Amino acid sequence: MLRLLRKYAVSIAMIALLTAGFLLWNASRGYDDQAMADIPIYDDIDLGSTLAGTDVRSLLEPSYLKYYARMAEEGAVDTEGVEIVLPAVEYAAISDTGTRLERDLGGEAGPFLALIDEDSWVEYKVDIPRDGFYQMGMTYYALSGKRSSVVRNVQIDGAFPFYQAKKLEFPRMWQEVGEPWYDNQGNEFNPRREEVFGWQYRDFRDGEAKVSEPFRFYLSKGEHTIRIQAVREPAAIKSLHIFSPRVIPTYEDVLARYEEMGAKPTSGFYQHFQMEDAILRSDPTLKRIEEREPATEPFNWDAIVLNAFGGLNWKRGTQWAEWEFEVPATGLYNLGVRFGQWYLDGAPVQRMVTIDGELPFREMNEVVFPYKQALQIKRFGTEEEDYLFYLEAGKHRLRMEVQIGTLGEVFEMVTDVTTEMSLLSREVLKVTGTNPDPNRDWKLEQNIPNLVPRLHTMARALDDGIKKLYEFGLEKNSAQVSPLYEARDRLLDMAENVETIPARLQALNDQQAALGNWINSMVNQALLLDYLIVKSPDMDWPPAQAPLIARVGTMFYDFFRSFTRDYNGVGNVYDDDEQVLEVWVARGRDWVEIIKQLIDEDFTPTTNIKVNVNTVPAGEMQVLLLAQTANIAPDVALGVEGEYPIDFAIRGGLVNLNEFPDYEEVAQRFRPGALIPYKYNGGDYALPENQNFYMLFYRIDIMEELGITEDKIPETWDEVMEIIPILHQNGMDFYYPHAPNNTQAAINEFAPFLFQYGGEFYRDGGRYSALDSQEAFEAFKTWTGLFTNYKIAKQADFYNRFRTGEMPIGVADYSTYVLLSTAAPELTGWWKMLPMPGVRKEDGRIDRSTGGMAQTAVIFKDTKMKEEAWQFLKWWTSADVQERFGTELESLLGVEARWNTANVEALKRLPWQQSDIDAILEQWEWFREREVVLGGYYTTRHIANIWNEIVLNGKLPREAIEEGVKEINKELRKKREEFGLDDPKMQASSRERMGAS
Question: pLDDT tens across 144-169, in order?
């Protein structure tokens, strides 16, 4: 060992020196940063963009912070003493459809007004006694729906005062049903969560929690019309509340009140309450989780025990959880929690804490939980003193809700900078065009007013944001601040070297995307809780962690046990001597645990078929290929990538599903085009589980400003090409996906054009490529022409550019829908999703054919339980099970994990907005997948090559296509010869191997 240390002493010293230097460099960043020292402040210069007056984003409502600041500057102040309660049934007007009166809800007779359908609305007339700011709230009852939070918007006198008013969330209530359950390995699993129906009151506040207090609305004296409109989910309204802003006392005020009332500290009481035992939660995704620190209670050395609450699922605005605790005597107590907060590198997170439905004092509105790579004790209080809480003897309820309000101003600054960067990019493009000559002096300072001051001002805004982050408690070596430093320094460098800007526009656009992603990551304020501490002030706080020896011992125990522990088995694991159906699932463990739970609760009790479920790394299909080769393949595999069933089938590895007499009945669950890739030699070898889909997304506001009204949104590719010049004239662009260096993506991007023009990938049963047909030629010309003739961007972050308005229209897949639905609240009501453009046929119909191959379920040939395996596949792909799986998955992981099931009936039942599901189902009428053949990977590869040759290298389409088809045919012939598919004798042998008749 000493010899090794001497040998590598220089290397070790260098590493230590570099590490120390890096840490010192990081530590030096912050308040003492000198980058802005010589940058002037421009108070007397108009720094507006030349596009600001005509920019379509000016159509969007301001943010709440801007609205409030503007009204305050105009002299608006909080009113006092006003409390108006409007019963829901005393409305001035309601929508013609979608509303109804409800009675007998939550133990109250009613009647109550319910908004049932999306876009139904109710209006109230209210007489305001004086000018000023008011707050609002609503008492509501969430009716049975699709399990999502209730979403409403509010308009005042026919307009939204700020964009957050378009998406107000009113959570449902959920509770655990029964006790946690255990598998036969002793591992603990979460009990089922079910909805609790009842009346709730909630202030109108930011659904993302970026504003720390309920919204203030400015209302002038006189009559106003307030409209509440349904966006999502049915709910009844009991009353609308309009009142003067509540003044929450500070802790000092409350402490003085304690003295006045004679409240005394209690003594001798200490108890902690396990926070995995939450009695209510706003979201079924909030659940028990495991924490392996040995002082976490309870703890099990040999099995999974769910001994903590929250974690990565408890991160979004409006998410709250509630716990019950009891104290023996009336008096003053200290409160705190044992928590883990290691999710945002170096950044604190916040929670709002209420007791019995009320904020005890103002400081509990934004309780900060600092970052640390270990469990901590949070004493509710300051560094100098612990807060005292007055509690009467008996039971109390403590609620904690995600709060991000302190960072709201920083997010606003960064968002404003990204907007300015977008405007600046468009102004530069107006001067230089899309392909500027790098050797030309474009004289940008003369053509773009106040260019350098604008760059300096953007940099200063980012620098101010960095300072606020450090004031909030961000650690100085945190990676969370790096994107802001990088963007600031890049802007400063551009101001120093203006002539380099045209060549650096892509870098500027990438920086925009990075800042947008930074905001999206920072709003995820995850927190883990172990237990709630309630104690008398004279009692000591518990230690935050177990002794070092216990932690080290646990680490070593887990390490050595990892060599013998089965990490692949999930849930109940049956012995080898039993007749058991073996199912392998190529998905994440959270997905697999839900599948196993459904099996144990439903499939096994109903059929008496025992099932072992094992995980396979997602996407690692070679594991299944190796298992088949080694004769240890499972009976059933789920999550098999769509390209692979035919590879297995050709090798005689899968059961032909159409051998089962009810196969055709089961196949009716899916779109006919979804089954194409799994057909081979007269057989059907897989059932689709889920499927992707491409749609057309567009910004309503921007397209209307450009004169492209809803009836003129393009339905064909010819119409797309008509609007692209209009977009370019206004510094915008159309988006069509292209993933460079991803051959699999290329074939999916090309397939819609080929199918819509009536082409095929192969002919003569997969012997030859059909890409040399006239239909394929037209498809290639249209596809590549978007990039060559119409100069749309070859690569772009569509989500972020859609938000900024640079790409107000484009084709994208399901993941974009999820992002826009969950992470773009400012665009609520301003974007729409339609079926993708297509090709108009002679009969006037528009062919919108496209696919979205995803994952499948298969039965392996060597199974000794063929009928049982088929029963399992029928059960798994049924509408009821797919609906329940999708619901449980979304309950566990949130809307980001919404299950895009291939079962058409199940898709209709999942919590989509009606307008969105209508668009998806219309697109699915044209759903069509490509066939998969032996050697087809060469088709995938050469479609990408053809695109590169035409778009990047300028080759003629016909020439590039012919070269590609020649290579594809070579490989197809080679593979068919290898497997003897054209040799009658070998074909017979192959059929015999596959069991074909």
Answer: 988 889 999 999 999 999 999 999 99
SS3 state at 851: coil
Helix axes 866-876, 879-893, angle to 10 degrees: 60
Angstrom distances, CA of residue 297 to CA of 190, 515, 545: 16, 40, 11
To 10 degrees, what angle do helices 505-522 and 405-432 make? Answer: 160
Rg over alpha carbons for the chain, rounded to the nearest Å, is 31
Alpha-helical (H) ranges within 706-797 are 717-729, 743-756, 774-788
Cα separations in angstroms, 293 against 15, 370, 525, 549: 31, 18, 21, 12
pLDDT in tens, 45-94: 777 666 654 444 455 789 999 999 999 999 999 999 999 999 999 999 99
Q: At what angle do helices 957-979 and 937-947 cross, to 10 degrees?
A: 170
Other CB atoms within 10 Å distance of the CB of residue 247: 10
CA-nearest of 788, 778, 698 to 735 is 698
CA pair distance 49, 420, nearest whole angstrom:
8
E strand map for 536-607: 569-570, 580-585
Measured in whole angstroms, the distance separating CA 148 from the mean position of its chain's CA atoms is: 15
Instruction: Report the DSSP beta bridge partners of residue 311.
Output: 527
- Dihedral sign from CA coordinates of 747, 750, 756, 757: negative
List Cα–Cα distances, 896 to 156, 316, 640, 892, in angstroms: 32, 12, 21, 10
Q: Is 581 exposed, middle or buried (0-12, 13-18, 19+ CB in 10 A)?
A: buried
Nearest-10 Cα torsion for 777, 734, 747, 517: 170
Q: What is the pLDDT of residue 439?
A: 78
Question: Which amino acid does the sequence have at 51?
Answer: L
- Cα–Cα dist 922/920, whole Å: 5
DSSP 513-543: HHHHHHHHHHT---EEEEEEEEE-TTSPPPP
Q: Residue 264 CA to chain centroid, in angstroms?
A: 48
Q: Quick one: which of 431, 351, 333 has its CA closest to 387?
A: 333
Q: In this structure, are residues 173 and 276 in contact, taking their beta carbons and an 8 Å threshold?
A: no
- Cβ(174)–Cβ(196) below 8 Å: yes
Give percent of the chain above pLDDT 70.
92
- Tell me if 736 sits within 8 A of 811, measured CB to CB: yes
Parallel, antiparallel, or unpaired: how do β-strands 809-813 and 846-847 relate? unpaired
Q: Is 83 exposed, middle or buried (0-12, 13-18, 19+ CB in 10 A)?
A: exposed
CA distance 897 to 818: 8
Distance CA 44, CA 803 (A): 31
pLDDT at residue 707 is higher than 50: yes
For residue 995, the model assigns a pLDDT of: 40
Phi, psi of 126, deg, nearest 5 = -135, 135
Give residue 34's pLDDT. 78
Q: Which two tokens stand for residue 524?
A: 């995820």
Banded model confidence at residue 551, pLDDT cuts 50, 70, 90: confident
Through-space distance between the first and last CA atoms of the chain, rounded to whole angstroms: 68
Alpha helix segments (H runs only) across 651-712: 663-667, 700-705
* Alpha-carbon distances, residue 6 vs 10, 12, 17, 157, 913 (angstroms): 8, 10, 17, 79, 67
Under 8 Å between Cβ of 909 and 921: no
Give residue 77's pLDDT. Answer: 97
Pairwise pLDDT comparison (367 vs 185), residue with the higher score: 367
Q: Say if CB 871 and CB 666 are below 8 A apart.
A: no
**pLDDT of residue 914 exceeding 90:** no
Residue 35: phi and psi, rounded to 5, are -60, -35
Kindly report the number of other CB atoms within 10 A of residue 161's CB atom.
21
* Whole-number pLDDT of residue 476: 78
User: Residue 335, exposed/middle/buried by CB under 10 A (0-12, 13-18, 19+)?
Assistant: buried
Using DSSP's 3-state secondary structure scheme, residue 264 falls into coil
